[in-house]
From TrEMBL:
Family: Belongs to the transcriptional regulatory Rex family.
Keywords annotated in UniProt: Cytoplasm, DNA-binding, NAD, Repressor, Transcription, Transcription regulation
Organism: Lacticaseibacillus paracasei NRIC 0644
Lineage, broadest ranks: Bacteria, Bacillati, Bacillota, Bacilli, Lactobacillales
GO molecular function: DNA binding; DNA-binding transcription factor activity
Binding partners and assembly: Homodimer.
HAMAP family hit by this protein: Rex
Coiled coil: none
Descriptive protein name: Redox-sensing transcriptional repressor Rex
Length: 217
C-alpha cells in the first residue's frame, strides 16, 4: 500500500477526504454515497472514484462507502494512526503562528521542537513547545527522530540550515521561505507560498467566477 504511486493532485486531495470522513465518523455516520461525499468536499464524483481507484476498490456498487473502513484506510495512508513529530526552524512571526496552531486537534501531527538563533528564544517554551539554540539542532533532530521540518527563517539563512537539516537525516521540508532550497534527491520539499495561493484564487475568481469548480488538475 505504501508503494502506491499516485498523482500529486490526488495526494493533495487525500487530507481533504480524510478530514471530512473524520467529521462523519465523529458524528456517527456509518455510510456515505459518492454523490454526498462529492457535494461535501467539492470534488466531482468521477475524480473521487478515480482517486480512490489508485488504492483498489474502496466502495461497493449501490452502497457507497463505509465511513469507518474508509477512514481507517486513509488514516494508514496519511500516517494518521501514529503521531508525527515535526520540527520548526525560525520562531518569528510566521513560526509563532504555526506553533499556536493546534495541528494535533484534527491531525496526528505536532510540532515537538522549535529552533532559533535568537538567544532570547532559545531555551524557552513557546506555546508548549521547547525552543532550542541552533547549535543543538542536528542533535535534537536525531535524538527526537524528527523527519519533517517546517522552515520559517529569513531567506539568507534558508540554504545553510537546509544543509544542516539534511545532515541531521531529515526526509521532508515544508519550505515557507521564498527561495527554492537545494536538497538531495531523497529529501522532499513542499514549498508553501500564500501569495501564490492568493494569486491563484484571484485568477480563478476572474476566469471562472465564485461558484464554478476549477478544472481538473
Ligand atoms: N510562504 C509564505 O506564504 C510566507 C508568509 C510569510 C512569511 N514567509 C517567509 O517566512 C520567513 C519568516 O518570516 P517571518 O515574518 O516569520 O520573519 P521573522 O523575522 O518574524 O522570523 C524569522 C525568525 O528566524 C530566526 N532566524 C534568523 N536567522 C536565523 C538562523 N540563521 N537560524 C535560525 N533562526 C534564524 C529569527 O530569530 C526569527 O525568530 C521569511 O523567509 C518570509 O519571507 C513566507
Amino acid at each position: 500500500m505504501a508503494e502506491t504511486i499516485i498523482p500529486k493532485a490526488t495526494a493533495k486531495r487525500l487530507p481533504v477526504y480524510y478530514r471530512y470522513l473524520n467529521f462523519l465518523a465523529n458524528s456517527g455516520t456509518t455510510k456515505i454515497s459518492s454523490t454526498e461525499l462529492s457535494d461535501a468536499v467539492k470534488v466531482d464524483s468521477a475524480t473521487i472514484r478515480r482517486d480512490f481507484s489508485y488504492f483498489g476498490a474502496l466502495g461497493k456498487r449501490g452502497y457507497g462507502y463505509d465511513v469507518v473502513d474508509l477512514l481507517n484506510f486513509f488514516k494508514k495512508i496519511l500516517n494518521q494512526d501514529r503521531l508525527t513529530n515535526v520540527g520548526l526552524v525560525g520562531v518569528g512571526n510566521l513560526g509563532h503562528a504555526l506553533l499556536n496552531y493546534n495541528f494535533r486537534q484534527a491531525n496526528n501531527i505536532r510540532i515537538s521542537a522549535g529552533f532559533d538563533i535568537n538567544p532570547e528564544l532559545a531555551g524557552t517554551i513557546q506555546s508548549g513547545v521547547p525552543i532550542y539554540p541552533m547549535d543543538e539542532m542536528i542533535k535534537q533532530i536525531k535524538d527526537q527522530q524528527i523527519e519533517i521540518v517546517i522552515l520559517t527563517v529569513p531567506i539568507d539563512a534558508a540554504q545553510h540550515i537546509t544543509d544542516d537539516l539534511v545532515k541531521a537525516g531529515i526526509k521532508g521540508i515544508m519550505n515557507f521561505t521564498p527561495i527554492r532550497i537545494s536538497v538531495p534527491s531523497y529529501v522532499r520539499v513542499q514549498n508553501v507560498d500564500l501569495a501564490t495561493e492568493l494569486q491563484t484564487l484571484i485568477y480563478f475568481l476572474e476566469h471562472y467566477g465564485p461558484t464554478l469548480k476549477e478544472p481538473e488538475a
